Amino acid sequence: MKNFSYHIPTRFVFGRGVEAEAGPQVRELGATKALIVYGGGSAVRSGLIGRVEASLDGAGVAHVALGGVKPNPRDVLVYEGIELVRREGVDCILAVGGGSVIDTGKAIAHGSCYDGDFWDFFCGKAKPERTLPVGAVLTMAAAGSESSNSCVITQEATKTKRGLRTELNRPRFALLNPELPMTLPPYQIACGATDILAHIMERYFTGEADVDLTDRLCEGAMLAVIRAARVAVKDPHDYDAQCQLMWGSTIAHNDTLAVGRTQDWGSHQIEHELSALYDVPHGAGLAVVFPAWMRYHMEKNVMRFAQFAVRVYGCGMDFEHPEKTALRGIEAHEAFLRDIGMPVTLRELGARPEDIPALAAHTKKTNPDGTTGGVFPMTPADIEAILRLADR
Ligand code: NZQ
Ligand code: ZN
Q1: Cα dihedral 3, 200, 181, 224 sign
Q2: What does the pLDDT look like over 153-169, one tens digit per residue?
Q3: pLDDT bracket for residue 297 (50, 70, 90)
Q4: How many C-beta atoms lie closer than 10 Å to residue 334's C-beta?
């Protein structure tokens, strides 16, 4: 296990009706004027925005609002938000939505404390040094942005989707009401569950050998999320299943499960190219990329992939041919994804095979030598081969 330093400054308030805590929580931060950020309208239609505003009013916190965040959130609205913050003297961001809304809120928070272009942080030109406090009212279990150190924005003009990792990204509080995602279409619930699992798997397929405790935490969380996802896509009103998914989303991506491990994140970088170019949900893109990534790399650490097959999908271990066990685990994962309604091929996603070379070339290089991925570094040729595996 590697050395680590770990601090999560996020307060979690979990349960029915916790959006009523928005006002008191903002107040506790010492803020006096909040910018409420929300999406395309689901939070207005459900009455959630009204309840949040009432809570802020009750706590004596002034507020202005910025709606219209699109999935795979764009830079354009971030610029608008930064201007609004400066014009209105806002001192806190309250994001009411899923990952796209929370990430927009985070980017506005960083950008409004910076004299240059906020995109500098996303293209690696500058590092944020200050930010405004961000609170989140989570409406869907998926991205984990409610306590992650990450933020992902798309530059609309170039279709470049890039993530920024900094501890400044961690929200100060997250209000988690598992009833809120009950209004999501099952497809979106499935996308969310796929993303949650992918966040655990990016950590699970580590290069570290002696990480039994975090292996077991990851496996337990994956088992619970798989079970809850099967229930919630059939019955979005199942409160217990929504509870598992919502807390699962949060712990899957704030490192609770996986401190001290090398992590990969190559699949995520490849997926970001798909959702940037085709504007598909991030979870659906991962359903296509992850199994192909597993097939491509499994032989480099076959026992770890076999362990995943045995412990997460209950496959029998073939000691003579562990690669067969590993492959059965990948097939079982793919079968699960199909069961919950996810695409598993590029064509099902609506991607064009002729775009593969450009997608591979444009994928973010995360290592100093120009490769991508922390455990299994990939060249553009490797990425192209993985996308070809997904093109069935
Ligand atoms: O815009 P509205 O009308 O609210 O509709 C949204 C949107 O269309 C809808 N929705 C959300 N809550 C709902 C609801 N509809 C009905 N009832 C509700 N309660 O769901 C749609 C998708 O929302 P979005 O926020 O895009 O989904 P998600 O949470 O999956 O976020 C995806 C984004 O997060 C990024 C992804 O790349 C993508 O851009 N990620 C962010 C991460 C982070 N910051 O840590 C990590 C992830 O790996 C991921 O990359
Ligand atoms: Zn993700």
Answers
A1: negative
A2: 999 999 999 999 999 99
A3: very high
A4: 20
What distance in angstroms lies between residue 59's CA and the mean position of ligand 2's atoms? 34
Q: What is the pLDDT of residues 16-54, one digit of tens each?
A: 999 999 999 999 999 999 999 999 999 999 999 999 999
Domains of the chain, first to last: 11-180 (3.40.50.1970), 185-390 (1.20.1090.10)
Backbone angles phi, psi at 97, to 5 degrees: 165, -155
b/e map 299-324, b = 16+ CB within 10 Å: eebbebbbbbbbbbbebebbeeebeb
Neighbours of ion ligand 2 (CB under 5 A): 195
- 242 pocket-lining for ligand 1 (C-beta < 6 Å): no
The pair of structure tokens assigned to 284 is 């659906």
- Please give the pLDDT value at position 392: 83
Structure tokens at 201: 């798997």
Strands 134-138 and 160-165: unpaired
Residue 275 Cα: closest atom of ligand 1: 37
Query: By the 8 A CB rule, do 93 and 134 touch?
Result: yes
Q: Strand order in 134-138's β-sheet?
A: 11-14, 173-176, 134-138, 92-97, 33-38, 62-66
Q: Whose CA is nearest to atom 43 of ligand 1?
A: 145
In angstroms, rounded to a whole number, what is the distance separating the alpha carbons of residues 346 and 354?
11
Two tokens, residue 306 = 């076999």
**CB-CB neighbours of 86 under 10 Å:** 11
pTM as predicted:
0.98
Cβ of 41 less than 6 Å from ligand 1 = yes
